[in-house]
Amino acid sequence: MTGRFHAGTFEAGGIAFTVETNDADWAGRFREVFRDLRVADGRPSPVVFEVLHQGISATTHPWAVWRDGEPLEMTVADHYILAYLLWEVSRLMFERTGERVHIHGAALVRDGRAVVLAGRSHAGKSTLAGWLTYRGWGFLTDEAALVDPDALVVAPFWRPIGIRRPGPLDCILGDVLPEEDEVLVPASTIGALAPATPVTAIAFPSLSPNEPTALSPLSPAATLVELTRHFPGLIAGGRVGFRRLARLVTEVPGYMLRFYDLDDAERVLRELVSPTA
Amino acid sequence: MNEDDRPARHPAVETAVFEPEVVIYDDRSGMVHHLNPSASSIWLLLDGRPLAAVIDALTQSTGMARDDLRRDVLQAVAELLDADLLSA
């Protein structure tokens, strides 16, 4: 089917955006994947992502993507277009972060307290974020935590959770094609979304198959050093960004979280945020 | 490097103090360095005063032998210079 199809309006960290495409099926997929970011239409001047299929002659990398008329990427494969668009949406938000700090990590809420799970790829952040959401924690974000270092609040960015397969979360996924090795799952399909929440702790998870689950406190200096490794805006933000991170670790404690069993990890994090902790 | 030298923290380097450690950020390279407590106490005194004054100050505050501190300070300053974190 040809023509122009619209998905949105969506919002990422307070920035409205829409997706326009020439494929009706894919418009539906964009609406589904970004469903938790949906807001009422009528926002002034939303950013427009055009995601256009370039026809049957472009067989392996048929998609081209523009943002407000500016070309971003002209050769994107079918299996990557959702992840790519999500990355561009996150980038858009980070460009307009303002005074907030954005950390490469997830954020979850229990008892009105947020924990940021910061770390590099394959550290188990998204798996843990999905599992905590499934176990009743409120979902703030995955991969892109926006923290106000003065108010000490994590803003919601309800982007879909990227879940790798096969993996421990297979049991909570719905219909998934067997060849898909990573799926983007709207958090609202497995649990509850959380509003902006005060941050109680920053944890750096690492998958450790042969060791017991353990949460070890870090000094503020060590927390700052770890955070700078997961702060994509450090170079762009320069010393101002560094100062913001330093303010954050002065107020919020950091921990290393070694885990493999998801229920064990959930237990130690629940104890961490417990009002009686 | 001798006790008359007056190294100072480079103006492009930002310091975050978390007693007894400091973390420093080099705005030119984006590099972050985590200094141990003794290097941190030396770093915070590198404000352009002579190294002799740095050593004296640390001798007073720590009670350690001056010769031992002199060796530590000169070594630390050499490493900080190598990392391009000081204006010599």
Summarize the structure.
The complex is a heterodimer of chains A (about 280) and B (about 90). With about 280 residues, chain A is an alpha+beta fold. Chain A is built from 6 helices and 17 strands.
Query: How helix-rich are the residues of chain A, as a percent range?
Result: 25-40%
CATH level 3 topology of the largest domain in chain A? Rossmann fold
Distance between the termini of chain B: 9 Å
Describe the global form of chain A.
globular
Biggest sheet architecture of chain A: 10 strands, mixed
**How many angstroms does the end-to-end distance of chain A come to?**
57 Å
Spatial order of the strands forming the largest sheet of chain B: 2-3-4
Supply the number of helical segments of chain B.
3
List keywords for this structure.
heterodimer, A: 277 residues, alpha+beta, Rossmann fold, 2 domains, ten-stranded mixed beta sheet, five-stranded mixed beta sheet, 6 helices, 17 strands, globular, B: 88 residues, three-stranded antiparallel beta sheet, two-stranded antiparallel sheet, 3 helices
